[in-house]
Sequence to fold (381 residues):
Amino acid sequence: MRVLHTSDWHLGRSFHKEDLLSHQATFIDHLLEVIETERVDVVAISGDIYDRALPPVDAVELANDTFARLAASRARVVATSGNHDSATRLGAHASLIDAAGVHFRTINDRCDSPIVIDDAHGPVAFYGIPYLEPEAVRLPWSLPARSHQLALGEAMRRIRLAHETSTARSVVLAHAFVAGATPSDSERDITVGGVDRVGVDTFAGIDYVALGHLHGAATLRNEIRYSGSPLAYSFSESDHVKGSWLIDLDAAGHVQAEFVAAPVPRVLSRISGDLEHLLTSSLFTECESHWVEATITDTVRPRGVHEQLSARFPHVVSLRFPDTGGTTGITRVTPTLGASPHLVAQEFVSVVRGQECSEVEIALLDDVISCCAREAEQVAG
Fold:
C-alpha cells in the first residue's frame, strides 16, 4: 500500500501579517498531483488542518474544495484533528463523509476504531488519534495524572488491545511532541507542568506512525516520522525542506519511505549587516524576491529603516535590532531634574536611540503628551 503522509497545513495562517492562502492552495494542487502521478492509495493527514478553531471563511472554502477534490481522487483519506483544530467542528458529519472515502477521526474514544483499507496483500488498519488534551481525558480515562505521556499511552493501550487479534498491518496517526524531534518557533506550546514530550517507545509495534504537530520533517525511526508543515511558518524554519512522506508498506508491514518536496512559493531569508551594506551589497541580490528577516547591526539605529529596506526587499517582514554594545542597549534613563514631560520624552528617545529627535519627532511627542494631559484633566474634572 502506498500512503502519502502530510500534516500541519494550518489553513488560514498568515506569515508576519502576510496572507498565505494562495501559497497553501499551491500546496494542495501539488498534493493532488502527487496522488495521481505516484498512484497513492491513502492520504494520511495528522492534524492541524486549520490554524485555529474558528478559521476564516476563505480557509474553510479552501478546505472544502480540497476534501472534495481528494474524495474525487484515486486515494482514500484518513485525517485527525490537531491542537489548532476544533475537533467538534472538523468532525461534524464525519459518518456521512465516510461514504465519500474521506475519514475524519476527531473523537478521543474512537481512537481504537480503525478504518480498514485493503490492498493486494490484505487489510491495513488505520487508527486516528486526535490531539489529546491531557486534562480532557484524565477523568474519562481514569488517568492518575495530567500528562501527554499518560494520555497517549492510554490511547495506544486501547489500540493494541483492539488490534491484538487482527492480522492487518497497522498505521497510527497521532498529533504530539515525540522525543527525538526538534521544534521550531511556530508551533503552539502544549506543555503540561513543564513536560510536553512523549517517548518514542509509546508507538512500539506499529508498522507505521504518521506524526503531526512539529513543523520540521523528521525520522525518529524508520517507521515513525513527522511530515512537518508544507510551508515555513517562521524564520526558524528557513532551512527546512518542506513536503510529505511517500510511504510504501509491503505485505509484511515493512516501510520504505521517500520524501516528496513541496513547492516553495516564496523563499525565506535571514540577512544581517549595517543598513548601508544591506542596501548595496550584491550578496543579497537573490533575496530581493524572498520573505526577509533583516538584522540591522548599526551602532546607532537608523531612521526609516523599514522604508529604506522595502525599496530593495519588497517582502521584508521582520526587523531585528540586536544590542551591538552601543547606545541601543541602554534601558534606563535618568531625566534632567525638574524637566517638563515634553523634555523628558525627548531625552529618553535621544538617549536610547543615540540621536537627537528631529523637529517632526519633537512635534509628534508634544502632541501626544498634550493629548494625554487633556484627557487626564477631563477625567479629574
Q: What stands out?
A: The chain has ten helices and 19 strands. The longest strand covers residues 122-128.
